[in-house]
Amino acid sequence: MEEQIIKLVAQDRIEIPLSSMYQKLKKAKKGHAQGLASKLDEDSKEFEGTRVFAYTTEEDKERARGMKEAVAEFCTEFPKYGTILKGKIAEKRVRSEEHLYFGVNPGSRLTADDYMEVMQSIGLSEGTARSLYPELMDISRKLSRSRDEERSVIVGRYSTDDSE
Fold first, then answer.
1. Which site from 19, 31, 85, 145 is most exposed, i.e. has the minimal number of CB atoms within 10 Å?
2. Residues 87-112: pLDDT tens digits?
3. Using an 8 Å Cβ cutoff, are 157 and 96 in contact?
4. pLDDT: is 3 or 63 the higher one?
5. What is the DSSP letter of 152?
6. Contact indicator for 92, 160 with CB cutoff of 8 Å
7. Distance between CA atoms of residues 35 and 42, nearest Å
8. What is the value of pTM for the model shown?
9. 71, 84 contact by CB (below 8 A)
10. What mean pLDDT is predicted for residues 34-58?
11. How many C-beta atoms lie closer than 10 Å to residue 14's C-beta?
12. What is the number of other CB atoms lying within 10 angstroms of the CB of residue 136?
C-alpha cells in the first residue's frame, strides 16, 4: 500500500508542472495561430516558404445544437412546458463524490527514484526521465504550496436522488 501511495503522490507532483506548461502552451499556440490567420487573410490566404506552409479556409461544419439554444427554442415553441423544463433544470440535485486524500507525512520525502519510476511508466526512457526530473521538480516547487499539504482526487460519483 505504501508504494502505491508513493506512486500516486509522485504522479500528482509530476502532473502539476506538465499541466501548467500544457495550458500555457495551448493558450500561446491559439493566440499565435489567430494572429497568423489574420495576417494571411490580409494577404493572399496562403503562404509557402522553403520549410513551412500555411493557409486558411472557411469550412461549414454541422455542430450539435447547444443546450441553452435548444431550451430557448423549446420555451418559445412550447411556453407552458418550457416553464416546467426551466424549473426542472434549475432544481439542484444532491450529488455525492468519493474522494481519496493522500500526502506525504511530515518530515518524509519522495526520492528521485520514486519520480523516475513514474516517468518511465508513462513511456519516457531512463535517460529522458533523469534529464527532465530536476526541471520538473523545480517547476513543481514554484507552482505548488507546501509539500506537506494534503491532496485529493475524486474516485467515484453517485447521485443521492431517488429519481435517478
1. 145
2. 888 887 767 888 899 999 988 999 99
3. yes
4. 3
5. E
6. no
7. 11
8. 0.67
9. no
10. 87
11. 20
12. 18
Half-sphere exposure of 12 (CA within 13 A, CB side): 20
CA distances in angstroms from 160 to 99, 115, 155, 156, 164, listed in the order given: 16, 38, 16, 13, 8
Task: Give the DSSP per-residue string, 29-82.
Answer: HHHHHHHHHHHHHHTTSEEE-SS-EEE--------PPPHHHHHHHHHHH-HHHH
Residue positions counted in the chain: 164
Closest CA to 147 of 7, 1, 9: 9
Contacts with 2 (C-beta within 8 Å, 6 or more apart), sequence order: none
Cβ partners under 8 Å of residue 81, min gap 6: 74
Q: Domain limits of the chain?
A: 61-93, 96-155
Q: Which amino acid is at 16?
A: I
Q: Are strands 151-159 and 46-48 parallel, antiparallel or unpaired?
A: unpaired
